Amino acid sequence: MYQRSGTVGLFSFTLTALAMAMTSERLYAADASANVEHVEVVGQAASIDSALKQQRRSDSIESVVHADGVAQLPDENVAEAAQRLPGISVERDQGEGRFVSVRGLGPDLNSVTINGTLVPSPESERRAVALDVLPSELVQSLSVIKTLTPDMDANSLGGTVDVKSLSAFDHKGLFYTGGTEASYDKNTHQTSPKFSGAVSNRFSLGDGIDNFGVAAALSWQKRDFGSDNVETGGAWDFQRGAQLEEFEQRDYDISRERTGAGVNFDYKPDDLSSYYLRTLYSRYKDSETRNSTAIEFVEPQVAGVLGDAEGSRKLKQREETQQIQSYVLGGERLLGLWTLSGQAGYSRSSEDSPGHIANAAFKGIDDFSDSGFYSNDKPRPIIGQNFYNASQFSLDKVDWEKQNTTDTEKNLRLDLARDYDLSGYASQVKFGGKVSRRNKDNDLDAWVYEDFDDLGFNDAQLNLDRFAKGSVDYRLGQFGPGISGSAIKNLIGGLNRADFYDQTESTVNDFKMSEDINAGYLMNTIDIDDWRFIAGLRYEGTEFEAKGTGATDGDFEATKTQRRYHHWLPGLHARYQLDKNTQVRAAWTKTVVRPTFGQLAPGFVIDDDEATFGNPDLKPLESSNLDLGIEHFMGRAGTVSAFVFYKDIENFVYNTDLAGTGAWTNFSEAHTFANGDSAKLYGLELAYSQKFDWLPAPWDGLLLGANTTFSRSSADIEGFDTARGTQRKRSIDLPSQSDTVGNLMLGWEKDKVSLRLSANYKSAYLYELASIDDKDHDLHVDAQTFVDFSARYSLTKNLQLSFEAQNLTDESYFVYTGHRSYNGQYEEYGPTYKLGLTFTHF
């Protein structure tokens, strides 16, 4: 009932919106273009209108978000701006939007480009790029391209997120803006600053007039916030009546610092040529202190039943810095009927985590009797006061780690197009090629400090009393003392680090991977009356190499895998103009995505009868995609559209346990990744947007936007059923795929005031698979609805005051185990309030 009510509500709203659109269309029938000429809008309406114009002209099916008049996206970061688009949802981290999912396909199955060049991922195991590292002030437009033409990289199954940065030709003459903001996090009662600015101007070089442009943008933000968490990780014994084995309470204290800068140059010496240089730098520094308490029952227990339990207190304290650099040099030249264009790109992403406390664990000196819990979905401890007394815990182990990951991508592209006449119809043939070279390296070092008694430490030196740091502010209940990171560092700082080096952990996680792709394509575009057709073929040849190390019962061996594979990817697009404001689109495309670097990892660990390893021999995922839809445009900032889509995905990748099969017959565990036969995804996208400027005042300032995506997926996986001793198949939903995603935006703007209330809904989805024979332990993320409000008021023509309230309903993050009644993870963030001041000249 919980999920169904949300779906029905969104669906009902969408039907109402469509009906309103059809009724109001009569008011535009007389002369839609006249409205465009005379309606004067600012802010939201201008941004929506610019986006719709780009969407309308595109040869692909795409959704667009444009910056408004002060060169700012309507949201805090790129990910949160993207989630307002049809078919788009985001994965959140600590309540902030980070990774983008397109049409129900997970972030690793989509790609991100900045100014046309691929952005590699700073994280060691992923391809997905966390878009919250890109400050909104650096972005002029954001588009999600859902159907790829043959001249585009075919490396996404759901879509390509393309970010365009600010250009001097986006404004006439001198433009500059500067802003400052303060945000307040209600959960931690912390106030955080933000400063940003952008400037652009055109200059005259040679005989030209305003033919050279320079644009620059800078943004800095430091946000202090936190969250409160309780999680079981799925540690339920369902064979004995939903008994809980253990659970953990976590308190996060986080500081995130974002710095972004970009300088762009444009040169248009004449009407026949243009050249550009785009640069972007983004730095994301995340400092996290996580205090936690853990309760492990000696025997699994149901809620309300008491027994003996072991208790522990833990600390994780780390700092990591992600950096993204992107440089793109390109140009275009008209040579009669020919158009020559080219681009060279270089991108580098990195993640650096200097030496830090990965885990410092204090164990209870004695068991805690008469202990239990209540509430299956948000477990709370029933335990004596000794559990909150630091003197009852002693240091057991300290894990110390440092890690560095780099991911670079270099590419060179050349395109040649020629316009020609084919039996009286305007046509264009286009062909070209691209070479890209990608290298990803990971280096992890780990140390394990334990057996402190053998090192000469006495009980008093290891007691938590010596390391305790005040009482933790935990909103979900009593927590007790925190742990001092500096005290832990002082303790292990006096020891010989070399004696505690973990050779296995430090070696098997290191890798070097390279991915070289050579691509070429041929396509033809023809306009026949009200039709436009694009047909073409793309070729991509890939050379992949992975180097790493494996460990078998403490013995190490180097591993190396080299592979070559080829893909021929045809595509056909059609667009038909039904009337001046209505067009139908259809597309059939083939796309490909390589598995993640974590899935392809060349390292392995074999310890007695247990094994864990990546699979460098995984096949790429291939998808045949069919899209069909209709778009109707209604004056300024108005549209209504409907699209259906279908994807047939081959070689779907999933995690599996090979124990009991083949070379792993005598193993109890053999965890790795495998290719499934196929997966299918289909759905319906509905979108509506309109500015009601034809209504009498004050309703003529009203804006309304809504979109809903309904999708379904299925995939077959195979594994060994240990209980039955046989191979077994199982059908699942695609991970990260929500059946329903929806957005509702109600805005109003006129004269000096602009208001916006927005809601984003995402239904529950599969997060992580358990074993083939254990569906009850699959982890699912519950449905979420986020509600935000923003207001802007123009104090003068150039000075604007803004207020934002995010997560007004205090939406939580809930992962459940098999059924909504059983916790996997529950986390609260609280609302955030922001007050800002912006000065703009343009």
TrEMBL record:
GO terms for cellular component: cell outer membrane. It is a multi-pass membrane protein. The keyword Transport applies. Keywords: Cell outer membrane, Membrane, Receptor, Signal, TonB box, Transmembrane, Transmembrane beta strand, Transport. Residues 1-21 form the signal peptide. It is found in: Cell outer membrane. Residues 372-808 form the TonB-dependent receptor-like beta-barrel domain. Residues 56-160 form the TonB-dependent receptor plug domain. Belongs to the TonB-dependent receptor family. PANTHER family: PLUG DOMAIN-CONTAINING PROTEIN, TONB-DEPENDENT RECEPTOR-LIKE BETA-BARREL DOMAIN-CONTAINING PROTEIN. This is TonB-dependent receptor. It comes from Pseudomonas hamedanensis. The lineage of its organism: Bacteria, Pseudomonadati, Pseudomonadota, Gammaproteobacteria, Pseudomonadales.
